[in-house]
Write a structure and sequence with these properties.
Blueprint (H helix, E strand, L loop, with lengths): L2 E5 L2 E4 L4 E8 L7 E7 L6 E6 L5 E3 L7 E6 L4 E6 L8 E8 L15 E2 L3 E6 L1
Parallel strand pairs: 2-11
Antiparallel strand pairs: 1-3, 3-8, 4-5, 4-9, 5-6, 7-8, 9-10, 9-11
Length: 125
């Protein structure tokens, strides 16, 4: 059974940094397509960044240059390093996994079958 558990969320002032982690069980992060999504109240879930089996990454324009996705093979975890945080980054952040996707480095939520429960990130101005 697949499980994804996020951690690392919290409250931070604008300009600060946070590092989110997603511990995977029942799958190996290096062999799945992995991604981070976020959802703010009243808004649709949006893709933040994704990583494929080869390690290539893709980011939403809104976070490009500020966020970095990485994998730790030994710990079987996916991480999201978030720097220069802005109030508009406030949202619940979710880790997601898929064996296949409809497009390369997909940021479409419908492409991902496995989801974590989320971790809240709040950025104050």
């Amino acid at each position: 059974q697949v499980g994804l558990v996020e951690s690392g969320g919290g409250s931070v002032q604008a300009g600060g940094s946070l590092r989110l982690s997603c511990v995977a069980s029942g799958l190996t992060v290096s062999t799945y397509y992995m991604a981070w999504f976020r959802q703010a109240p009243g808004k649709r879930r949006e893709g933040v960044g994704s990583i494929d089996r080869g390690g290539s990454t893709r980011y939403a324009d809104s976070v490009k240059g500020r966020f970095t996705i990485s994998r730790n093979y030994a710990k079987n975890t996916l991480s999201l390093q978030m720097n220069s945080l802005k109030p508009e980054d406030t949202a619940m952040y979710y880790c997601a996994a898929a064996w296949t996707t409809s497009q390369t480095l997909s940021l479409e939520a419908n492409d991902y079958r496995h989801w974590g429960q989320g971790t809240q990130v709040t950025v104050s101005s």
